[in-house]
From TrEMBL, chain A:
The keyword Phosphoprotein applies. SUPFAM superfamilies: SpoIIaa-like. InterPro entries: Bact_StressResp_Reg (IPR051932), Globin/Proto (IPR012292), RsbRA_N (IPR014792), STAS_dom (IPR002645), STAS_dom_sf (IPR036513). The lineage of its organism: Bacteria, Bacillati, Bacillota, Bacilli, Bacillales. Pfam families: Rsbr_N, STAS. Residues 148-259 form the STAS domain. Keywords: Phosphoprotein. The keyword Lyase does not apply. This is Anti-sigma-factor antagonist. One of its GO terms (molecular function) is oxygen binding. Gene3D superfamilies: Globins, STAS domain.
From TrEMBL, chain B:
Residues 34-133 form the Histidine kinase/HSP90-like ATPase domain. This is Switch protein/serine-threonine kinase. Keywords: Kinase, Transferase. SUPFAM superfamilies: ATPase domain of HSP90 chaperone/DNA topoisomerase II/histidine kinase. The lineage of its organism: Bacteria, Bacillati, Bacillota, Bacilli, Bacillales. GO terms for molecular function: kinase activity. CDD domains: HATPase_RsbT-like.
Length: 271, 133
């Protein structure tokens, strides 16, 4: 590292600080609930970090940057705060160094060097945030999948599977698995599949439901399809799909009545 | 005035986007609940066929007009393998993928007009229109 550049940066510490506060002090965010005091603290920490990076060692290697990154995101600050801070810092350093009376070659050398310091940090920020993003997406995806096809035992030998939202192939597979596992686990004689919340029933969805119902039948139980909205009933007919082979009821309530019938159960009001 | 909106179809989620586009356009044009469901389902079939048999392609939706009638037009195009025997794929129950074989004949019944143009080795174009009543 160029000793002269280092010297200049150390000497100009307070000037750098002043410029830094001027530039980043006005950073506006609506996502974070930070008080001005907390924000100033964060700004100071950010600058210290960058100063240390220049004078002590690479903060993209020793975990310091990650910790700061985490802290910023946990405070609900946008990623932009970090990228803008890095750019600001680079600009300020160049500004103060070039305020010195330097010849052109030295100035270019310094320019190159500043780039060389900042690049690993920028790279780290990019990889960090994309990793974080990927992790979030995959967590949400598995959370969604867990919610996507629950089989709920409601009465003895009667279970309900409410389906809400779009059904893709992955979910269709899950429906089948949960259905078969649940039927055995809960000894269900009747399973009600409620499709009130499924926006589109096309041939693929219909095919999967028919297959699931067939599989349930092979286990010796009955599958009743409920919650077929009128417009869905019409499109199913237009598609030429024959649902007459397995029981359907318009509402969950009607389906439940039939399920109680099949399992010889009754709900009675106490006098 | 002929605005057209398109969705590239190359994965399962694109099918959902194409459906949403169609539903929004249908709503805007004043189609009722049942016709909205018909249009969305037709788009779903065509988009899924593109995804399954051609790998990728696109679905375009536009407002249609003919002799004072207004409606919605779905244009599904791909550069996939094409269809050899069009008469056959329009039969109920014909499938090469173990499906129900109800998609294409279904789309024809769901919509008012249906045109299919396919060249083996170069691709398929299907245009289907629904008129406002
Ligand atoms: N875009 C396309 N490119 C090439 N072949 C196609 C295309 N669309 C449909 N086909 C062929 O036509 C056949 C019938 O299509 P159709 O949509 O009617 O039934 P399917 O897709 O097999 O089953 P599903 O009932 O689930 O739709 C398909 O099996 C396929 O071989
Ligand atoms: Mg199909």
């Amino acid at each position: 590292m160029n000793a002269e550049t280092m010297n200049v940066i150390q000497m100009k510490r307070s000037r750098i600080k002043e410029l830094w506060e001027q530039e980043l002090g006005g950073f506006k965010t609506e996502t974070s609930a930070m008080t001005p005091h907390m924000y100033n603290e964060l700004n100071r920490e950010f600058l210290d970090l960058l100063m240390n990076h220049v004078s002590l060692g690479d903060i993209s290697e020793d975990g310091t940057l990650e910790r700061f990154f985490d802290k910023v995101l946990r405070a609900n600050m946008p990623l932009e705060y970090i990228t803008q801070g890095l750019q600001t810092y680079r600009r300020i350093i160049l500004e103060v160094v070039l305020e010195e009376d330097l010849n052109k070659d030295v100035a270019i050398e310094i320019y190159r060097e500043v780039d060389y310091w900042m690049d690993p940090i920028l790279n780290k920020v990019v990889t960090n945030s994309s990793r974080l993003w990927e992790r979030t997406v995959s967590i949400q995806k598995s959370a969604l999948l867990e919610l996507s096809a629950p089989l709920i035992p409601v009465f003895q030998h009667i279970s309900v599977m409410p389906l809400i939202g779009t059904i893709d192939t992955e979910r269709a597979k899950l429906i089948m698995e949960n259905l078969l596992e649940g039927v055995i686990q809960y000894r269900s004689q009747v399973v009600l599949i409620d499709i009130t919340g499924v926006p589109v029933v096309d041939t693929m969805v219909a095919h999967h439901i028919i297959q699931a119902a067939d599989a349930v039948r092979l286990l010796g139980s009955t599958c009743i399809l409920v919650g077929i909205r009128p417009e869905i009933a019409q499109t199913i007919v237009s598609l030429g799909i024959d649902l007459s082979l397995f029981p359907t009821r318009s509402t969950l309530q009607k389906g439940m009545e039939q399920a109680l019938d099949i399992t010889n159960q009754q709900i009675v009001k106490e006098k | 005035m002929n605005i057209q909106s398109c969705v590239e179809v190359c994965n399962e989620w694109d099918i959902v986007s194409a459906r949403q586009l169609g539903r929004n356009m249908a709503k805007e044009l004043g189609f009722g609940n049942v016709d909205q469901a018909r249009i969305t389902t037709a788009i779903s079939e065509l988009a899924r066929n593109i995804y399954l048999y051609a790998g990728n392609g696109k679905i375009c939706i536009e407002a249609a007009e003919k002799m004072g009638k207004r409606g919605l037009k779905i244009i599904a195009t791909d550069n996939g393998p094409g269809i050899k025997d069009i008469r056959k794929v329009m039969e109920d129950g014909y499938t090469t993928s173990g499906g129900l074989g109800a998609g294409l004949p279904g789309v024809k019944r769901l919509m008012d007009e249906f045109m299919i143009d396919s060249v083996v080795g170069s691709g398929t174009e299907i245009i289907a229109t629904k008129w406002l009543r």
